[in-house]
Amino acid sequence: MTIAPCAGARSGRSSRLVHLGEAMDFTFLHCADLHLGSPLLGLSLKDEAIARRFAQAGRAAFSDLITAAIAQRVAFVLIAGDVYDGEWKDTAIGLFFARELSRLHREAIPVFIIHGNHDAKNVVTSAIPLPDNVTTFPVKRARTHKIEPLRVAIHGRSFLEREETENWAPTYPAPVAGFFNIGMLHTSCDGKPGHASYAPCSSQDLVARGYDYWALGHVHQFEVLNEHPHIVYPGNLQGRSIRECGPKGAVFVDVQDGRVRELRRVITDHARWAEVVVDASPHETREALLRAVARAFQPVAGEAEGRLVAARLRLTGATALHRSLVADHAGFAVDALAAAQQNAEDVWIEKLRIDTRDLAQTGGEDLAGVDLDALLAGVDLEALTLRLGEDMEMLRSKSSGASLALEMDEAPALMAQARALLLERAAHGEAR
Ligand SMILES: [Mn+2]
Question: E-assigned strands of 42-151?
């Protein structure tokens, strides 16, 4: 685990520091989106021991974070929603969370929690009593909790339903004069694409409240939307699918003389998602392409610093290897995995996507008297994706736990594969 100052986040010592009476210097931890109980999605790992390690990554990330919070002697901990991914399957996940918060309780570190859309009060109805150091904010309106010795006021409100669609920012209480004011909000701030628009607001709305720090949750990507006042998404602790690539963690916030002095990002993920793109066009042989794959995985393995890595390998470019790659998708995936693991033993390939083009392709190729390109151009990709999706849904229902998903943006690559397979078979006289 690493803790490092965020680039550009150091505020610099102001020439006119505001002294707030007996204001104390302190550090707090801001995290969000633990999504405990969430599976890591899309891994087609046949090795069960490896799959189990991926499955445990989310919990391990949170345990490490609590260890770091204690080591950093934080004054308090903020958890800005989505502790749980949804209703519990069993009590183990709730017991785990309570156990970790009890570690903070024994160190007399207060914890403040709001519920988000995934763990809204009416979504996760199971509960295990949490230790006395924990304050959970109510659902009806934003409330304020003061930590008098630190002169800190924390304002927060929890989700009652999964779909809270009102802008709550203007309903938050006025700042407490002479205090360091923090707002906790699970929100789709400034309309982030790819994230459901819950409790939407703008950063201007938040700045207008007059607080010193906004501890946001919901968006899984680390982002500082504003400084002084700081508006921060810490991101989630552990990436859960190929849509959540790169380092994941939380933020330590150093407060000095009533001002944010520094943000330090702590990286907690135990498994890293990455996309590796290899241009196949310069490589004339399968062996040369595999060497290029090995080289492309070097930086990914290096950045992961010994963590598990699940990478999507995407091959692009025009190559004479195109048809053989498509025809031997599974075989190349195995050889590519071996090449990737030359760099680090814990690198795994989540999925191999062959987005190459046939170098020899001139268009309008003839297949038993049929213009193949004209034929494939007539296919309704949207309808095809829908139908394939239904078939896969049926497969999923018959094979418990299998993770199958089809994304619309995969349709063109699938069509290219279908085309190459047809031509490959035709070349071997298998076409009917
Ligand atoms: Mn959320």
Answer: 76-80, 111-114, 134-136, 143-147
**Given this model, what pLDDT does residue 19 score?**
44
Residues 37, 84: contact at Cβ < 8 Å? Answer: yes
Span from the CA of 399 to the centroid of ligand 1 (angstroms): 29
Ligand 1 geometric centre to CA of 186 (Å): 7
Say whether pLDDT at 12 is over 50.
no
Please tell me the distance from the alpha carbon of residue 121 to that of residue 10, in angstroms, as a whole number. 37
Question: 374 with 364: CB under 8 angstroms?
Answer: yes
Q: Which two tokens stand for residue 398?
A: 């018959």
Provide φ and ψ at 66, rounded to 5°.
-65, -40
Cα of 36 from ligand 1 centre, angstroms: 12
> What pTM does this model have?
0.81
Q: Going from the N-terminus, what domains does the chain have, and what CATH number goes with each?
A: 19-267 (3.60.21.10), 271-427 (no CATH)
Residue-wise pLDDT for 30-82, tens only, equals 999 999 988 766 666 667 777 788 888 999 999 999 999 999 999 999 999 99
